[in-house]
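Pipeline run #58 for the internal structure catalog. This entry was flagged by the ingest filter as a single-chain record with no existing model, so it goes straight to prediction. Upstream metadata was stripped on purpose; only the residue string is passed forward. Reviewer on rotation: M.T. Logging verbosity set to normal.
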Amino acid sequence: MTGFELILPFLRPIEHLILDPDISEIMLNGPERVFIEQNGYLKPVLDVKLTEKSLMIAVKNIARRLGDDISEAKPILDSRLPDGSRVAAVIPPCSVNGVTLTIRKFNSRHFALADLVRTATLPECLASELIRFVQDRKNILISGGTGTGKTTLLNALASYIPDEQRLVIIEDTSEIQIQKPNLVRLEARREQFDIPAVTIRDLLKATLRHRPDRIILGEIRGGEAFDLLQLLNTGHSGTLSTVHATSAQQGLARFTSCVLQSGIELPYHAIKSNIADSLNVIVQIERRPGQRFVSEVLEIRGYDPDADRYDMKPVYTREEQPCRN
């Protein structure tokens, strides 16, 4: 079994939603409030018949089928299907309105940059500029909120990494779809029973022993930002990564916050200066109903400690629609 057949026996009342290719996400806020994201729009579903008891049984069976557990002692489930789709649940007492279940489907379609231009995610002139950044080995951080398409854009840009280069991909959950001849995929492991965790930080440190030409880090969430910063400062250029933020400026602030989570004892201005020396480009991607789009691209040129401000040059802003000559 490789996909939804693992969980369908427990979720027959929403089977039609799970199997609908136009639905990207299914959200159950208890048994009586069901929502979906379909073609980029969030909408309620009124014809689903579930009870709290049947939903609780379903979630517990799904957890067991996926080699996990959910109970009053461990009320949060965050698991992945073999095809990359995510299943997340929270049960009472932590979920006040009943069992909360969210299924985010893995999109197996590979979007090329030309597809993103065609769907107005970004203009063609910006696509050309981003390709040049990748080929010039700029370190690029893609910033955006949940479901904005950060991984889709990362996939599209990574396809322009030359085939002769050795590429290492590091992720919490395997999502990045890149086909390259010299490719290493590493995935973190959560702590389970008597099996210790393998963290993103562990994998970043191990990566240095495998001669990477380029490193792709799926998403920066914590102290691994400092380890990535160390790699970038020692000459590992051409890195691509993503961070959860609602603006390009907030993306830099979020990256700084993640560096601080590593527990290092460096002055705040020194951290910002290191970030400015290491990161070259930040791309902000956003989502509105029915559309995802790149809203801003900034080049990072340095950091002024006296003004506590990054020196950044706008490459593109959607409101003005300019592309640099």
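catalog note: The chain is about 25% helix and 30% strand.
catalog note: The chain has a mean pLDDT of 89.
status: ready for reviewer M.T.
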